[in-house]
Design a protein that fits this description.
The protein starts with a helix and ends in a 7-residue tail after the last strand. It has six helices and two strands. The protein is globular and about 35 Å long. Helices cover 54% and strands 8% of the residues. By secondary structure, it is mainly α.
């Protein structure tokens, strides 16, 4: 599957904002969550095809957030 096949979804990932608010780097988050930096970067850039609930749970635990703080439905994104 090419990156173009992943485009067209309407989910925005607010990982950059959450990291900035918490003064945390992506590398630190990857270590604390137990996910590779590459996979976390793919998620951060909105190119992930799926997110395991266990990963979402750990992200929310480490960042002290709710899933809705991390992910948002933005219908206009699918048209870009």
């Amino acid at each position: 599957m090419s990156p173009a096949d992943v485009e067209g979804h309407a989910i925005a990932v607010h990982l950059d904002r959450l990291l900035a608010e918490r003064g945390m780097t992506l590398t630190e988050l990857a270590e604390r969550v137990g996910v590779t930096l590459v996979n976390l970067s793919i998620l951060k850039n909105g190119r992930a095809r799926a997110v395991r609930f266990s990963t979402l749970t750990k992200l929310c635990e480490v960042l002290g957030c709710q899933p809705g703080d991390l992910l948002a439905y933005e219908p206009d994104r699918a048209r870009d």
